[in-house]
């Protein structure tokens, strides 16, 4: 069964996602990040500049398939089929319809009211389907 974790109170999504994706890459896993177009653009830029020591190969879901296959992370503004990936990182308001094909799903929740309301709906959907959810409060970690 897919592991589902919610990361709440994320104040700076691009920076947090860079650190999370570094952990995914260091674990030898591959990920898809679903996010609204502005966040996809920010994250693309941030992945190029966040660390001089770490580079996380990434591509857009609109890039050539060969580029996606060579990349650890694929960024997408909508659900897409990008081949074998272990981790789905969701920053969209809705649950991804294909979430169950991933080993891990990480739901990223910011600090604004809309983001929290959407997260409550996603939480409810997962629990109704029988998933035991893991909760990480980022505010408590800082």
Structure description:
- The model has no long low-confidence stretch (mean pLDDT 94).
- Strand 3, helix 3 (65-70) and strand 4 (73-76) form a beta-alpha-beta unit.
- This protein has a 7-stranded parallel β-sheet with strand order 3-4-2-5-6-1-7, with helices on both faces.
- The termini are far apart.
- The protein has helices at 13-26, 37-49, 65-70, 113-128, 138-141, and strands at residues 3-8, 31-34, 58-60, 73-76, 87-90, 104-108, 133-137.
- With 142 residues, it is of the alpha/beta class.
- 37% of the residues lie in helices and 22% in strands.
- Helix 1 packs across helix 2.
- The protein is globular and about 40 Å long.
Give a topology summary.
Layout: E1 3-8, H1 13-26, E2 31-34, H2 37-49, E3 58-60, H3 65-70, E4 73-76, E5 87-90, E6 104-108, H4 113-128, E7 133-137, H5 138-141
Helix pairs in contact: 1-2
Q: Could you tell me the radius of gyration in angstroms? A: 14 Å
Biggest β-sheet description:
7 strands, parallel
SS elements, strand count: 7
**Amino- and carboxy-terminal Cα gap:** 31 Å
Tertiary shape: globular
Q: Kindly report the average pLDDT value.
A: 94
Low-confidence stretches: none
Can you write the helix and strand succession as a string?
EHEHEHEEEHEH
- Report the sheet-strand fraction: 15-25%
Question: Count the helices. How many?
Answer: 5
Strand numbers in spatial order across the main sheet: 3-4-2-5-6-1-7
**Helical proportion, percent range:** 25-40%
- Helix/strand class: alpha/beta
């Amino acid at each position: 069964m897919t592991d589902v974790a919610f990361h709440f109170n994320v104040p700076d999504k691009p920076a947090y996602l860079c650190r999370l994706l570094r952990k995914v890459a260091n674990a030898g896993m591959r990920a898809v990040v679903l996010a609204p177009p502005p966040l996809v653009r920010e994250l693309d830029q941030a992945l190029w500049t966040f660390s001089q020591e770490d580079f996380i190969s990434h591509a857009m879901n609109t890039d050539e398939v060969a580029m996606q296959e060579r990349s650890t992370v694929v960024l997408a503004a909508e659900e897409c089929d990008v081949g074998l990936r272990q981790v789905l990182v969701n920053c969209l308001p809705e649950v991804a319809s294909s979430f169950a094909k991933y080993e891990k799903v990480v739901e990223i929740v910011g600090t604004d009211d809309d983001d929290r309301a959407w997260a409550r709906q996603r939480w409810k959907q997962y629990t109704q389907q029988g998933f035991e959810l893991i909760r990480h409060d980022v505010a408590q970690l800082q």
